[in-house]
Fold:
Amino acid sequence: MSGASLRGERPGFTGTLWREIQPVYAEIISHPFLRGLTDGSLPKERFRYYVVQDALYLREYARALSLVGVRSRDEESLLMFNAHSLGAITVERSLHDGFLKDLGLGPHDLARARMSPTTLAYTSYLIKTAATASYPEALCAVLPCYWIYAEVGRDLSGESSPEPMYDKWIQTYGGEDFNALVDAVLDTADRVLQDATSRQRETATRTFLTTSRYEYMFWDAGWRLETWPV
Ligand SMILES: Cc1ncc(C[n+]2csc(CCO)c2C)c(N)n1
Structure:
């Protein structure tokens, strides 16, 4: 059962990683943005802000995944990360295009949109780490994006949102296919971290915590409609 294979019950180093971010995950799952998605009370304006920022985020995340792919050590990982890079742009963009249309936004609105402080900080950190850190650390930087969404999708999938758009979002990440994809990435991470030095594992753990915090901040920015202070 994929249900039991994720999270802290996972054997290996990824189980340790999850335990490290338990307090962050607890804040994410109880955040008013996610509670509002589930009970349908999230104001549309905040969802619109999130969807636009996410479209900007995904372009950069796809680049980070390709960088991790380039730096991987076997063909399977190269293929996997590049396939996910493609997926981040195609599958998720079509999802977002649907949402944007439903929200009354078009390509022009997206072209005019600028990154929030959080989106810029998160994506810049991802690209820097994917490009310049050790391979184990680069891999750990991109993990929370997959893993936290899979866990959120699973935790929320039992509940169907009364708002169809929000329900569609929840079902996207709550499916078995997505769980299997995340499991494959986590298995890869366990193999890589097993071969890493203890110093690299330590740094990779800190980086995993940092990008998990950015995942929290991304929802929080949507909730606060974050802007640049000056
Ligand atoms: C801020 C933010 N974090 C994670 C995801 C989810 N996500 C984006 S790409 C990808 C894997 C490859 O397609 C996953 C799981 C998101 N949409 N936005």
